Amino acid sequence: MDLHVIWFILIAVLFSGFFFLEGFDYGVGTIMPFLGKTDGERRAIINAIGPVWDGNEVWMITAGGAMFAAFPHWYATLFSGFYLALFLMLLALILRGVSFEYRSKNDDPAWRNRWDWAIFFGSFTPALLWGVAVANLIRGVPIDAHMQYTGTFWTLLNPYGLLGGLAAVAIFIMHGANFLSLKLEGDLAERARGIADLWWWIAVISVVLFVIGLFGYTGYLSKGFLALLVPLAAAVALVAVRFLQGSNRFWAGGLAIILATFSVFIGLFPNVMPSTLNPDWSLTIYNASASNYTLGVMTVVALIFTPLVLLYQGWTYWVFRGRVRVGEGGY
After folding, report:
1. Using an 8 Å Cβ cutoff, are 181 and 249 in contact?
2. What tens digit of pLDDT does each residue of 102-132 get?
């Protein structure tokens, strides 16, 4: 296995970790104004992700950094072509971070309500746009012979792109609600389970349609039986969410997200950005990559520091593993 394939797999791992961890953050923020009926309940919901949400976002930064270093042409084409969508996502993430900090600075209910809805928009918007972006990578985008995106922002808002956005929002809401059912207590936890059950149906329907597109656009079925096992396992995990109880529901949903992300990368391989103008103009792990020397140095650095980061984040979750009660201080 050459270094190009290794780094393609590593970026897939980083994005799967990001969608698993930040996915429940997005889901929690999206349902928070609807699930929390009182200020105390909303504070408890935010406190459930308060110690970990910013650490979860590091996975996105790391994935972007790895893409920049290992596949600079992929990074350049993606971030320039999807500039407006990524800019809107960045604004939403900034709004969400500010909202977490400013919400409790004033006891005025109107003040807190405005920041609560800012958290909603700051969580819903990135979830939607990530789904749109991933769907367009699967579908292909107009890339010319110079590796330049020739479309517009509106090019991305095609039916399959919007379907990807709906699928991402639905599965993240389900994932976030299952997370809250573990972190909260009493009636609030029961209502969170109810939201998870409702959005499970929406997630299943949208994900099935999304996978049909994945198979059609990428020729997935021609990649062999072992490749097909990954989306099948993701489907089994998603179905299992409906029938499992307690923490098993959350872990099954997380496994479905991870396997679905790997399914996308398997479908793309060896492409990273297929061109709809000419297949020969598609970006691949070879024509979009950095030099072998750069990939070799990065591999050594990753082997040293990645385990340390995983240990630290695992320790953080262990420290804050307890349930959150309504009426406790915090955000």
Report:
1. yes
2. 888 888 888 999 999 999 999 999 999 999 9
